[in-house]
Amino acid sequence: MYQISDFSKKSSTSVQTLRYYDNIKLLIPNKIDPNNSYRYYTSDQLNTVKIINYLKNMGFKLKEIIQILEQYDENTLKIQKEKLENEIIKHQKTIKTLEKLIVNMKTSNRKFEIELAHLLNNKERRKTKTMKENYILAKEKLELIKNLHKENKMEECLVELENLKLQIFEVVGESDPFWTLSAGDLFTGIAFELMQNKEDVTFLNIFKFVIKDKEYIDELPEYAGKLKKDSYGYICFGSIVSAPYDTRAAVISVYKQILKPYAMFETNN
Question: pLDDT (tens digit, 9 = 90+) per residue, 208-218?
Answer without folding.
Answer: 998 988 889 88
